[in-house]
Amino acid sequence: MLKIAWSSKYAHPLPAGHRFPMEKYELLPEQLLYEGTIAQRNLFEPGALDRGWIIGPHEEAYLRKLTELTLSKSEIRKTGFPLSASLVDREIHIMDGSVQACLFALEHGIAMNIAGGTHHAFSDRGEGFCLLNDIGISANYLIKNQLAKKVLVVDLDVHQGNGTAEIFKDEKAVFTFSMHGAANYPLHKEKSDLDVPLPDKVGDEFYIKTLKENLPRLIDQVEPDFIIYQCGVDVLSTDKLGRLGLSIEGCKARDRMVLEMAHQDEIPMMCCMGGGYAEKISHIIEAHANTYRLAQEIFF
């Protein structure tokens, strides 16, 4: 059964006037339930992840400042959110959602988190709508509990997974792969184990060809026994914060390739949603919903 982490906390942590980019976390499960892609039994509600699993990928001093709401104005500004106890609580629940989804993936082959993909959070700071890094925390959880020997992070958000790259820069058990817009945020890129920067406005054909040239080879070389897939849909041509040119069908073809490779090679996979900022919310929901539709089609 496809298991999906979702909580009402995902959608309502911010005061009026600061909803962007939160709307999709409420609308996406509604759409999936309405169309019958999932049922209520597919959803599970995460709790608050034990702080001990946050420390390691994140520095204890940073976690303390975050939870005590003592970040500086500059540090708060870099996150893109007004800091509040409810926002931090939301983030800690998202971390548990991704960890629990990893455990479900070990059992069922794949599991999802409707939030997560917070790849701009560094070990000592938050950036770009990310306070804590669920990819870093989940991969660390798998390795430390000997549930995986080698984790491959496949980050296909339009923005480089800079925080994830920094967290794992000296960790050989985690291989970080980021295929992203070369000229997009962040201005300063960290060094992933493999970075594939893409020029502005590339369309479906170039994108899929480039992914096909890299991902199968990576799986053969890295030999992962777990994949964490950051499947942001800000690669769409209509995205306000992206600079690439994919169609919704091209984004779906990207997801099909990644999911089919994991399924064929019997590699458990956890998918976290990442970015999506198109002018029309319907574009965001349709592109994200395709990932769930494909998971049901390919794995179940």
UniProtKB/TrEMBL annotation:
Belongs to the histone deacetylase family. Coiled coil: none annotated. Keywords: Hydrolase. The lineage of its organism: Bacteria, Pseudomonadati, Bacteroidota, Cytophagia, Cytophagales. The keyword Transcription does not apply. It comes from Echinicola soli. Residues 18-288 form the Histone deacetylase domain. This is Histone deacetylase. Gene3D superfamilies: Histone deacetylase domain (3.40.800.20). GO terms for biological process: epigenetic regulation of gene expression. It comes from the Bacteria.
